[in-house]
Design goal:
Elements (H helix, E strand, L loop, with lengths): L2 H39 L6 H24 L7 H4 L4 H37 L12 H5 L1 H24 L12 H4 L1
Length: 182
């Protein structure tokens, strides 16, 4: 196993673990939202921290799932063309997309969000609302973390695409065979 394949597998493992954790956030989101609705409409009561936790869990779920969705090839494609191409052509297209779109986007997200996140930590920013959760700096830190995880997964995809283009792998999508891609 070469260095590129080891790197890709390590990143896949990381984002696979993050994705497995994020699945549980979906269940937690439904549970907390259900409790909020029951408290409000049956008991006429509510807690700001509980309502705010729905926002935290929802955003965390999406931010942590983005790289996982790229890992499992669950993002939207224009399959009219892509499905008909050879594995090498698909790898070349995805490599081009990673280099010219995905990585610049992730770099821009990290660059643009860094002052926002750093300011939040420096100021010790408190809850979004009175009585809310005091995790705002950590919450905002999800933005560059999401971009970093997505960039890593993009680099793993690029590494596998390079292996396909070099004839050292049948596909650049982990867990999929040539037949499943078509």
């Amino acid at each position: 196993m070469g260095l590129l394949e080891k790197f890709a597998r390590a990143v896949d493992g990381l984002n696979g673990a993050v994705g497995a954790f994020a699945r549980w956030l979906a269940a937690l989101l439904v549970l907390v939202q259900f409790v909020v609705v029951v408290l409000r409409y049956i008991y006429g009561s509510s807690f700001v921290w509980m309502q705010e936790s729905v926002v935290y869990v929802h955003a965390t779920l999406f931010m942590l799932s983005i790289a996982y969705v790229l890992l499992i090839d669950g993002h939207v494609r224009v399959d009219i063309y892509f499905a008909r191409w050879s594995a090498r052509t698909r790898a070349a297209v995805d490599l081009t997309g990673v280099v010219f779109a995905l990585l610049p986007f992730c770099g821009l997200m990290i660059w643009a969000s860094w002052p926002y996140v750093a300011s939040s930590w420096r100021l010790g920013e408190g809850p979004m609302a009175m009585g809310g959760l005091p995790f705002t700096p950590a919450f905002k830190s999800l933005i560059p973390a999401m971009a970093a995880l997505l960039a890593l997964q993009g680099l793993a995809m690029a590494a596998r695409a390079i292996l396909v283009l070099g004839g050292r792998a049948p596909t650049h999508l982990p867990g999929k065979t040539e037949v499943e891609q078509a």
